[in-house]
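hey so i finaly got around to running the thing on 2-oxoglutarate dehydrogenase E1 component from Isoalcanivorax pacificus W11-5. pasting the sequence first so u can double check i didnt mess up the copy paste, my clipboard has been acting weird all day
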Amino acid sequence: MQDSSIQRQLASSHIGGSNAAYVDELYEAYLTDPNAVPEDWRAYFEKLPSVEGSVESDLPHSAVREYFLLQAKNRSRVQKFGGGAVSTEHERRQVRVLHLIAAYRNRGHQVASLDPLGLMEREQVPDLELAHHGLSQADLDTVFQTGNLFIGKPEATLREIVDCLRGSYCSTVGAEYMHIVNTAEKRWLQQRLESVRSHPQYGADIRKHILERLTAAEGLEKYLGSRYPGTKRFGLEGGESLIPLVDEVIQRAGSYGVKEIVLGMAHRGRLNVLVNTLGKSPADLFGEFEGKTFNERGSGDVKYHQGFSSNVQTPGGEVHLAMAFNPSHLEIVSPVVEGSVRARQERRVDDNGDQVVPLLIHGDAAFAGQGVVMETFQMSQTRGFKTGGTVHVIVNNQVGFTTSRREDARSTEYCTDVAKMVQSPIFHVNGDDPEAVFFVTQVAMDYRMQFKKDVVIDLICYRRLGHNEADEPSATQPLMYKKIKSRPTTRTLYAERLIKDGVLSDDESSQMAEEYRNMLDQGLHVVKALVREPNKALFVDWSPYIGHEVVDDWDTGFPLKKLQNLAARLEQLPEAFVPQRQVKKILEDRNKMTAGALGINWGYAETMAYATLLDQGFPVRLTGQDVGRGTFSHRHAVLHNQKNGEAYVPLRHLYDEQPSFEIYDSLLSEEAVLAFEYGYSTTAPKSLVIWEAQFGDFANGAQVVIDQFISSGEAKWARVCGLTLLLPHGYEGQGPEHSSARLERFLQLCAEHNMQVCVPSTPAQIFHLLRRQAIRPLRKPLVVMSPKSLLRHKRAVSSLEELAGGHFQTVLAEHEIQDATAVERVILCSGKVYYDLLEKREAEEITNTAIVRVEQLYPFPEQRLFEVMEQYSNLKSVVWCQEEPMNQGAWYCSQHHMRNVVARLDPKLNLEYAGRDSAAAPAAGLMSQHVAQQQKLVQDAFGLN
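ok and heres what it spat out for the 3d tokens, dont ask me to read them lol
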């Protein structure tokens, strides 16, 4: 009875069956050093009863323990892990064999045949030589235990073991995975690679399918090359295996039940993927070559930057494919894709990433050279940005533009080494072995779906025609291109292989190529799995947000009683929740604001904007490096219990089944995080998506995103985006890097109503501005010059009534001087300087000067400003006052709008300037210098100097 119990336990548990050798090795390591095994296994082994004095109820575990102990003694564990002697010479050699197995797993990729051209410089790897481990040719026919090698039997000759290892790790596949800490992942990968020697036997149907995909890849490039000779297209010649690779990613993903795949890639091979994978009409592509544009509203873009979407059929059903639009800034598309994927996953309540998968196709030089790649990897497992793992494919041309020498291109052995930072497995594969490419694609996709982590395929190929079709590559790589010139294409080599194996005839191969060319001649779709009538439930409906005119005065009021009820809900904290002392004071003040006993400050107004939007069904997402608290401690949207450190987010607890309120302190990145939020916002039109810079100055770390996506995405690609940027801005003597959000840069980018740039100066204004951004169906990026000192300024307050009624006012009129006829001077300004001007006017008892705030600088509200100023019939001077130097801020970009208004009032009037002199840096570094400059510009505004 007891014996059968033991047998059942061993057979049914994870420590029995095919895992016994693995568990045995773990236990052996545990006996020598408990810290050498994973914590869960250590805990399991610690619970095993001792052999001595076992009671009857302990017999099952006692038997297991005795088995472990016996195995540990019989195998040379002491020498393996440090310690005493081993009994026989054969046992010593057994240990050396185990070391040899480990060496191949660690370093076999370094001698693998990965380069189709045979030019890759490889170092000698002594670890892989028998002599290095005290073994020789004489040992090849000796039988050894195979340990945890997946060779299919517990014992094998050394020759068989070496053949298995060389086939698995040193052929046209070179796998790097031993940097992974998780033992289960490593064992999973070993099983997949070693059990088939990295080269499974595929049937005739699959092999013909691979050839058909290679035929399509080569056929399109040849067709375009002959029809449009010398025209830039960044063709795929030399990397044709990418097409069967991507095809298998999609088909295998579909078999797992994946519903959407979002692709990001730069230029090389993009047209090929668009036509041969996503099913773009060849006729449309030819039209683009001949000058046709498909974006009549804006500038349009070159054909190899265009995105596309379609649906294809897979064994698991219909899969929606979306290729992101991408500028020439290569890797910047990576975080954009991740953001789009995250939004799609949240829409599907796909918390694990089972239904939406990101696929990123990189170039080798960009992958190694551009920092945004590292930033994107760093985001991959964080709460606010993870997407359940990305499949990365590197089209490794072995040349970056004209740089090919490894000592010039990078400091690492492989272009993929950056991926090791997140313990991604890396599969290097020879692009001229399409079946090996097909195999690693299957393993990579399975790994991603199994472990929900990033995985990398390094498709090592070459570039047959140079950086683009107009280049002459032999000028800089003469030896490489001498090899390339004489090398048959990947398709030719594989077709010859299949003909030799009797899979198809030479005529069938030629017919396959002819059929593809005929389809191109007719302009037909060439993707057989393309769904002609796609399931529209897989799409995002943007129609409610397109075609609207810009209307600034949008009603964003909210019922007062309901506003107070929402505020009351936010004030209810869980029982036993202990807020920090200063935070408690902020919460108490907010209670008073709700009761109308205290003026409303910025943090309260902003919080209530989010609460009211959530109440009306708009999700909110807010990220940045310190957004939970707020860099200047004004927000405190995330509260931390001082007893146990647990976080509580009141805005997530307004009521059951409310829209999501997501708020995440991001990693210390501007570029990748802002790009992620751009991608998210272009996929979630109903959400209010906000990125906040720690200081507005730091947005320049994401300038590529601002220039290439936020300001011009609609003009280039007709991509609508409602992303909001909160950029703290204001001169408080904190120096050149903590004063200016570089307002002038945003204004220089403004044209064609592409975005909004606003400088709200009261809590009510930010309340209505944020609400307008979500409620108004127009979707344009919003750039907010948000305050720092105004967050607590005694005069920068609003009332509940101002929140409840009204709208965002693009111009705030003078409200203290009642007699308009007394006004002889108007000072126009934006932002914090208004309060400095107000205090100066009161101190000097000036009664003839009105101060008018321009709260929206783009689109500039000329008509509204005219309406505010036309009441001043005795006007003699108009001044624009700004804190920024003359060559910065709004002066150069907006003065023509103000001059238009002034000229309408009186052609004799001139617009004057009051502000800092032109400067190279945004602000002074010394407080005394700052104060002197600030005093002077305020006095200049009133004409007191």
